[in-house]
Design brief:
With about 140 residues, the protein is mainly beta. Helices cover about 10% and strands about 35% of the residues.
């Protein structure tokens, strides 16, 4: 069952039951996006993806990050200097594992994407360090189809 409710943002919020998410996503996608997991570094092909295109949320399909803002951080995860828009993601403090970090979630469906750190390159100085399994890449030639 899928519900969409308006929350004051330009895109509706996608809300699904836990059962629906489990049916839609692979085991690893579910563990990362719905249970706030982390994939192992250097294991997802998006880490080294070089083509131009858009990275969408694997759960709801919302556009999140452009390849124009992607850079090689050397961390083993896809990294970006910022999302496609401020409305695309939500950020909040994450104090799990005795750390203090800023979690990044899809603003449309609340999928856990990764974390943002203040050690990225200019122009933002930010490093959005994301789980590749939480994303779906669409090459520029296929975008908009």
């Amino acid at each position: 069952m899928t519900q969409e409710k308006t929350t004051g943002r330009s895109a509706p919020e996608v809300v699904k039951s836990d059962t629906a998410w489990r049916q839609q996503l692979t085991h690893e996608q579910y563990a990362v996006t719905r249970q706030h997991g982390t994939e192992r570094a250097f294991t997802h092909p998006y880490y080294s993806e070089k083509r131009r295109g858009m990275y969408h949320c694997v759960c709801c399909g919302a556009p999140l990050f452009s390849s124009e803002r992607k850079f090689d951080s050397g961390t083993g995860w896809p990294s970006f200097t910022g999302p496609v828009s401020a409305e695309a993601v939500r950020e909040h403090e994450d104090r799990t594992f005795f750390m203090r970090r800023t979690e990044v979630c899809c603003a449309r469906c609340d999928a856990h994407l990764g974390h943002v750190f203040p050690d990225g390159p200019e122009p933002t100085g930010l490093r959005y360090c994301l789980n590749g399994v939480a994303l779906q890449f669409r090459p520029e030639a296929e975008e908009g189809k």
